[in-house]
Structures are given as C-alpha cells and as structure tokens.
Amino acid sequence: MRDKFDSFVVFAEMRTGSNFLEANLNAFAGIACHGEAFNPFFMGYPKSEPILGVDQATRDENPQKLLSAIRGQQDALGGFRYFHDHDPRVFDTIIKDQRCAKIVLTRNPVDSYVSWKIAQATGQWKLTDMKAQKVAQAVFDADEFSTHLDALQRFQITLLNRLQTSGQTAFYVAYEDLQSVEVMNGLARYLGVDEQLEALDKNLKKQNPSPISAKVSNYDEMLEALARLDRFDLTRTPNFEPRRGPNVPSYVAAATSGLIYLPIKSGPQDQVLDWLAALDGVPREALRDKMSQKDLRQWKRKTPGHRGFTVLRHPALRAHDAFCRHILTTGEGSYRQLRNTLMRRYKMPLPKDGPVAGYDHAAHRTAFVAFLKFLKGNLAGQTSIRVDAAWCSQAQAIAGFGEFCLPDRIIREEELASELPALAAGQGHVTTPAVAAAAEPGPFTLADIYDDEIEALTADAYQKDYMTFGFPRWR
Asked: SS3 for 32-49, per residue?
C-alpha cells in the first residue's frame, strides 16, 4: 500500500492552466493524470480513448468503476482533473476519501474568463508553438461574467467547507505557481513521489501573453462593470475571502419603491420586471440589478420598509418553459452542447435543427415527455449532467436565497394580479399597473400537450416542490 495516498484529484476550472499542470504531473514517472475523467461531454480529453479499460458508456452508467480503476492503478499514482460542472455523482466519494489527495488550482477569475472568451472566439484551446497562434479579442459580458464568477465561488466555498469539516488539507496552486519547478517538485513530495524534475514541460505555451487591456475589446466597459463588485471577491483565497450569497446580482430592485425581486429562473421574470418598472413609471433599464452583497446591504439600509419577494411557478409550466428556451431550440438561449448530449447519449427525440416545418403537437409532446424523464434522474443525481438553475427545484432555489436573505413574501404566479398590488400598497401606491399575462416560449403551449402522463411525470420529478409548496394538478 502506498504510504500517503492511493489517488489524487486536481480541482480546477477551464482556462486556469490545468493542462499545463497535468503535463508537468505526467512528467513524473510515478504520477499519471487522466485528464477530465468525469467531464459529462467527453472522457479524459476530446476524442480520447477509454481510461484504464473503462469506456464512456460504462463510466456514465456507473462512475465508481472508473474511480476504482484509477485508485487501483499499480504502475503510478492515478488521478484526474475535476471542474465544478463535472459529474456530481463522484464529488461526495472523492471529497470523503482521505486517501485521495486534493490539489486546488486557482486563477484570477477575470483572467480565466477573458482567456475562455478568446479560446471560444479562436477555437484554440492549447498552443504548442507560437507559429500556430490564433489571435482575437474578448468581448466582456457583465452578466455572463457574473454567472461565471458565482459558479466558481459557489464551488470553492463548498470545496473549502467539505475539506474543513472532514479535517483534510489540500495542496493549493495558483496559476502563477505553474512556472516554478520548485513548486512542482513540492507537489510531487506532497503526493508521496520522491522523483524530482530538473525543468518544466515546455510543450505547452502561454496563449495570450498580452496585458488584459489589450485582450478585451470593451476594456473600459469591463472596468465599469467590475467596479460594482467587491474587489475581494475577484480572487478567492482559501482561508480569508468573504463568502458571497447565492447569485445576488440576479436580484432586481425597483427604481424608487422599496421592493426587490428575487427571480427563480424559468419563471415569469419578464412579467414581473415589466410590472416593477411600470410601478414607478420608468423603463426596465432603470431597475437596479447586478448588485453585490455590499450594494444590497446599502440599498436595504437606505430603504426602510423594503420588501423582498419571489414568485413560484407551477413545476409543469416551469419545466416546459426551460425545455422550450434551452433544450428544444438551437437559437438564442439554447444549451447547444447539452442539447447534443441529450440527443446522443439520452436518446432524447429532439428535432436536429430545432422546431422547423413538420414539427407538430405529437412530436413536441414526445420530446417534452422525454425531457421530464431526464429531469427525474437529473434532479436525483443519477446523471452525469449538473442540475441547471433553469430547472432546479424551486425549494432548493429559495433555500439558496436564505444563505444571504430570504424573501419577505413568496407569491404564486396565478396570484400575481392580487399579490403585487398588495405589495405596492405597502409602499404607498394607491393605484398600480395591471399585471400582464406571461407569454410562453416555444411553438406550442403546455396547454396544447398537457395530459395525465405529463402531470404524473412532473410530480415524480419535482416531488420536493409538490410536497413543500402543495402544488395541485396544473389543470
């Protein structure tokens, strides 16, 4: 038996230098890193072969088989890279395993985001020679970056907490440390490998060595967006960084009234935001969003009598909204990579090019039924796909709000016409705007295909929401 560890995991993210770290780990004869072994879209590396005799289909059916194969590797200490959106079924196993060494690779999230955007634009994810370099500038998207940052920090908080509560210590490596052969040799010693490197692997080259101001086309706009964030949240450190609440930038405050809306994705956001703007007679652009925790605390202090609210939607209608916006379509809002995976691996009968001519009610119902069956397994942690905010349970979403601030009122969508005016009356409004009906996305409405089977499948997938909130049959 090995003295210290039987395996290792590198907790990292895209564009943090994990390929370079892996290349140097594999330079040690006693270490074997097997890439992104639990990436839901491929295995190890794109277009790669099975790992230690375990193919992708076997891994997806039972990820523990691949974990066992890596642990049992005899010729070297086996390990892999794990990102926040990799197969969630293996996370508990590896985090509890005291004989699985933990390596945490971090990078300034602004740098990793810009690098990711450039790689998307060029299609170049690795560079081995400057002659092959493809050059492009990133376009900074404040909302996209906020989502990116929130996902990274959520995972880092979870990781840190689980290590603390289990009494484990990880080996932390910053992006800047990757150029130090001394750090690499220290990492090898941490893993229990006595071999030492004289020099680092030189095959992979830094792709974008320019200053960040030259890599972002809308640099001034980026600076303005980042100025709204607490600067200490930009580079999370293991022990001292203030913890962020759950997706606080998504909260939307009224322009002048003391109301703040905590949206749940795939709900009636547009309907509520239009009403919130009309309440104060302003355009939607005048509503206040993208707040940090600090901004929100200041808003609360300056707005005595404020009220926060969220809106519940019936799970059947919400699942149909998520399906139409993100899975059925191939256009704006589509989760294209996930869509392809659902078609290929889960045999979901989706139209290849989206709902074009010939796509009828029957085809829509069949595809939605397949999505509901996928949701049951996904929400139960039985798939290699992470649960997306667009279809997570609403009970879980509201529990997340509670990590920072719970809403004062939870309103059901069908009661918006009476509940929103009541909230406005508490803010001194005598008259209030009408609440518009929510528009459903997609070529067909839920009413067009709804039946007993769809209700039963929805209730089966969202048992927690039905139990917590007492949802009745949709119709």
From this structure: EECCECCCCCCEEECCCC
CA dihedral 401, 140, 88, 379 (to 10 degrees): 50
Higher pLDDT, 211 or 38: 38
Record the pTM: 0.73
Q: For 43-130, where are the alpha helices, taking DSSP H only?
A: 56-61, 63-71, 91-96, 109-122
Interval 371-417: pLDDT, tens: 999 999 888 888 888 888 899 999 888 888 888 888 999 999 999 99
284: how many CB neighbours lie within 10 A of its CB? 14
Task: Report the alpha-carbon distance of residue 286 to residue 60 in Å, rounded.
Answer: 47
* Four-residue CA torsion sign, 375, 381, 385, 388: positive
Amino acid identity at 267: G
Burial-class residue 475 by CB neighbours within 10 Å (0-12, 13-18, 19+). Answer: exposed
Residue 173: strand pairing partners: 105
3-state class of 11 per DSSP?
Answer: strand
DSSP letter at 179?
A: G
Q: What are phi and psi of 328, to 5 degrees?
A: -70, -45
CB atoms within 10 A of CB 123: 8
Q: Which tokens is 181 given?
A: 């052969």
